[in-house]
User: Fold these one by one.
Assistant:
Number 1:
Amino acid sequence: MSAPEGSSTHGPLARRLTVLSGPSGVGKSTVVAEIRRSHPEVWLSVSVTTRAPRPGETDGVQYFFVDDAGFDRLVAEGELLEWAEFAGNRYGTPRRPVEERLARGEPVLLEIDLQGARQVRRSMPQARLVFLAPPSWEELVRRLTGRGTEPPDVIERRLEAARVELAAEKEFDVTLVNTSVQDVCDELLALMAVQ
């Protein structure tokens, strides 16, 4: 698949792409929800996932929910900008909507995991990778265990993954520490040059 006319995933337009990553439970979704509320002009890619919807989630809003065969097809046809498996489920970013919005000059935000951020770095090296860090390891553990949405074995897998993700912080262009959602939003919007 080719990029839309006038766009280049390696050129200046890719600079409009900001990738937000960090360990599970650090508050990425909360930050993104606040940015979407206060700055609807920032386009957030909706990921595709094989995981089942959680209570209150709507297909096409939080995620596009697909089965394994549907996800396999998207991968085989090159329809995903990046994808990764996490906690037994697969997640991916649809390529076409990202490229279309970048071609129009819109600020694009991806909220993805470490594996996905690395894939975007390879395919769009001018994208800005932002690492969202917790104030402390203890706070991250508290947030993950306090959710009450996942069984202990899933929480343990998320904590193991968080150790790996925290060690990868140096691979990112910028680190923001999530001590205040509003402060992180302000810093992220400034990085994206959104007024």
Number 2:
Amino acid sequence: MDSLTFEVQSLFYQSAYRGCIALAQMHSPSGPIDDESLLRLVYAARSALALGDIPGARQLLGDDAEQPVAMSVLLLADFMEMHHAGDEEGSADVLEQMATLLDVVEPGELASDIVRYNVGLALYTKGDSTKALETLGVTGTGGSTKLECISLGVHILLAIHRVDLAEKEYLAARQWGDDSVLVQYMEAWIGLVRGGRSTQQAFYVYDEMSQSSTIANTQNMAPALIGKAVAQAAQLDVPAASSTLQEAASLDADHPLLSANQAVVSALATNVPAEDVDSWMSAHTNAVPDSHLARMWEEKRAALEEAVASMA
């Protein structure tokens, strides 16, 4: 992987999706596409999907892409479109097509890992966490060396409340990939879910990311600032979280993670009554539900209700 492709990849890993797309397009050749150029466009197309821009993802790769790694992204676009439209039969057919690509890519290569990640992501989106983890090769024992697959696996494990297994995967990956952006983010995700003192380490991760000279004072800095604000809010430093989100908004007001987290911090700042929080959160995070704080609130509320019910 050349330095330019590495930079495009890093922007994708940091959720700096628009920056990833812009950089890949800027250096896209007008003639035949070599392997490095294709890989950059793959990350750009995945960024477009993360932004919900399915047509944009298809345009970046072209509808007749023949390489398995590009085909997996285009099929993921088809899957997302059908899934969101409620076409379960169609999305299941596409998922089967995606799975066949696992047999035609060379194991151990980055392209193979991306294909596996995309299949795992589709399975998880479909609601099959167990099959997704099996496909990703993330068993909770730390045996995988596929970093992208591990990162998604950690996300899934945290979502199904297996923090213990997520931490095992993270600790194993840290032994050989400690300098990777994804490994650092895994540490932050686990810290936010664990809460307490662990949120301080999450803050350190995002704060360090936001100070990188390659993204400083650009829209690419916004995702790291959003993560930093989440950590600040988790530490109940609401004024600091609000200020950090304002800084993020000044750099990228349309980032998909921004508005939901702004809504949660606003609820904390204005002391929304407990009985009104559910409706308030629903009204303010419906458009962008992917909020660490929104998920944390739901998990804590559910745990409280369960505890109250057990004492009844």
Number 3:
Amino acid sequence: MSKNAYLDAVKKIDDSLKSSEGRNFVVRNVSVVDARGIVPNAWILVKDGVILETGILDEDLALAINACGLRASDLSVVDGRGCFAAPGYIDLHAHGAWEHSFDDGAEGIAIARAYHMLHGTTRQVLSLITNPLDVMQENLRTVKRVMQTRPDVLGSHLEGPFLALSRKGAHDPNCLVDPTPERVEALLEAADGTLRQITLAPEREHGMEAIKRFVEAGVIPAVGHCDADYKTARAAFNAGSTLMTHMFNAMNGIHHRKPGPIPAALEDSRVTIELINDGFHVENPVLRMAFKAAAGRIAFVTDAMAATGCADGAYKLGALDVTVTGGHARLVSNGAIAGSTLILEVAINRAVKELGIGLPEAIAAATIVPARALGVDKPNAITSAPLGLVEKGYAADLLLLNPGTLAVEHVWCDGHKIS
């Protein structure tokens, strides 16, 4: 897509999200699919951007329309043409797309979000890369400002600066520091209630203290980019960490005498586990193993960087140079994997067609599981309505998926028609 074309797409999405019109509609002739299963020949009634009712019988639809005080003429009707109707995807961990990162200010956020939105990610936590502390503070303030006009932005995720030097991945080693109380408070103050999660290495000095403070502030501490042993990881989870950042990547692996953090996360039912399902960060047999070992707790994430949606070539991740070849991003300096160019649309397709995972289970990993991890699967202070299911009372974050390819054909976010 040309630059002018994607700037047009950005404007259309921004205009749609700001519009108060068109949020009353019916989607008919679809198979509803979410974590609970598949319901064929279904309809979905939406009023003011919230799902009012779902069903399968025309007479029930007529009754629902009358009961809510609407007339059929008040509603736009969408023929789903036999598509799957799924909840909008939620990405807990992504850095950008379309040559822009979420660290690039409001314009960069709008451009990168547009690409993910068009491919079904209706809500996103914006991941901010490790930078000098003052830069990270300003980026947090930017996300807070953006959230005032964008319901699709759920908040920020700090991947750093409290990471293990030995497991830094594509993060600038010169910016990695211990989570002292002063640094923790500075970040919390800058975010002002909009920081959703922070990845940290619990073994760093002040690590456990920081986990407890973040939990107290309503932030999810995620174990990741760490060299923690099993005991330390268990202690982190017991201290309130309920998330593991892209499991298997940037952490010590499983050893039969040194189990490390991965078994600690797999056996703890309180922990949601991020997985990058691109077959490159984690090979298919291991992905399948993880899905079975932590059923219902796997959240697909993309870790997508600025090259997502772009051709191979030279890019930046923070201040570091990255080369993308065959869609895979690596640091120029040492060849380390530098994020991905994955989108959740592709992750769902891979899960079903390459991993053999059922469609409802795959959809769950990009909808209700991340929603539950953030606490937005029920009434909350972050979103106008719960997320993660095609269900009465939930936000009308809806996707129409091609029944053969699972490609996203139409998108609604908060009842706003996007594509």
Number 4:
Amino acid sequence: MTSFFIAWLSNFKLLLLAFDKGSLSDPTLSPPQFLAIGCFPIRKTEPKNLRQESKRGYKQVWNYALKGLLLAAFVQIYHFSEHIHPKVILVIYSFHLYILLELMLAAVAALVRATLGLQLEPQFNEPYLSTSLQDFWGNRWNMMVSCALRLTVYDPTLSAWTRIVGRESASLPAVLATFMVSAVMHELMFYYLGRKRHNWEITWYRLPPVISTPLTVGFVMVTGFWLFFPPFLRCKPDARAFKEYAILGAFVKDIVLGGAVKLRHFNGILTSQ
């Protein structure tokens, strides 16, 4: 957790502060608030309707209680891991990690709210309800990191590439740069956790063939229909091909018929002799 809080979020917040951006640039922050926001995955937000906040807090209590029970159930399941398929254990690990992070970050947010009186936004927004990858990464999963990456990487890269290739095409290099920085920061966190040499497994991740093959073939087919076939068909290759086939057929026919005529003539000469 320290590697996540300090090495990633705090550094990115200080980087934004250097450019007078981000949550730390708020001049109304007191020193304790500044320190808390700089060290923990929290961000100050405007106070909302108290009635809505009360209802939301009531729902969150039941939500966290249910997730706490699931976490306890996962811990019990691990005692029987030798009888469970390893892939199933990995799926359980995924839910375990998400629930653990949400409960831990919620506890930190509640502590800061109680001690410093800050209105905080949630770190997760039910990522299991995501309708797309964009919805997952941009709106539901670890929103504090998404916000930090958007301000420190995506927006500057988008602005720079917009001057070169235009607004519509600039989003692709901005997204690639954002995911690359995220991958490097994950490598750094795992280095702090294990103190082992990097193998860049996260940054240069290779998909298994069952996924990479359909993606590769699909990409080639889509780009082929998009980039190759339109100019190809404008040249009317079908009409040209049929014309060439007719010429080739006539040529072969002449050769065959001519050969047959010569063969009959030669046979006739032999018969007469």
